[in-house]
Amino acid sequence: MNPGNLHRYFILLIFFFFSVCNWVYAQNAMLNTKEINQIADKFYLLSQYGCNIVVMAGPEGLLLVDSGTKEYAFKTDSVVSTISDSSIKYVLNTHFHFDHVGGNMKLSETGATIIANEETRKRMLSEWNIPEIQGMKYPKVLPYSDKYLPVICFEDSLKLFFNNEIVQAISYPNAHSDCDVIYYFQASNIIHAGDLFFSNGFPVIDIYYGGTIAGYIRAIDSILELCNEKTIIIPGHGVISNRQKLNDYRNMLVESKIRIFKLIKEGKTLDEVIAANPTKDLLKEGESWIPINIFVNTVYQDLSKK
Question: Using alpha carbons only, what angle is made at residue 286 by residues 280 and 292, rounded to the nearest 5 degrees?
Fold first, then answer.
């Protein structure tokens, strides 16, 4: 091959290399875009990383509500970077469960400040281990290291002024767990309800760590008072929702509680209550992300203590 042809070959090779790189980059960017749902001006939803993660982007930087699971932490961080090249300033945790705080360490290592209520930090300092429920086994989660832990904590409420928003944090003890928090973005009329709302079926009520059906319903009643018909409500899991659907959810839980408690007062055993299928016309099997018998089990266990 003469020098001229060799030179042209080399140029074509470089051109091909950069074309392939650009194609790969474009495909990755397209993938990331599909994983991001813009829900309002400066607000984005990531729903594929263990829980619903909300990202707020603005002139002061990025703020996240929840961080997903540990397994997705590196991917979460890279996807967030496609929204903005600003740094992540704050990560707000809704409660202590592993699918909501698992990405804390990765994000704190890149400079984010973790915020939660005091009970969340306390729970993260001890082991989470619940028994098998109706054939469903949950992982045992060991105490978290310091880099996972919230470094700013509050008791009942907190206000954060960031990106021209007032972010109001409100604690609801003894609901989904004993350390649940919602985050209300007042100017944008958006609420991240954490696991105080599952738009994809019955909730998990962590009765082993302070959760109660009565507290869960009280929390929803309080959230409904904050809402109007235009409020965007982000559940901990499931699609984005609104006040009407949250109210319907509340009524479903109230009716479930009434029916299960009535069977308990009649002296029914747990197996008999499950066999009676008290929620059969409220939500059908397959419409809930968890099996209905698990929900009935936890409500039965909770109400049987009364």
Answer: 50
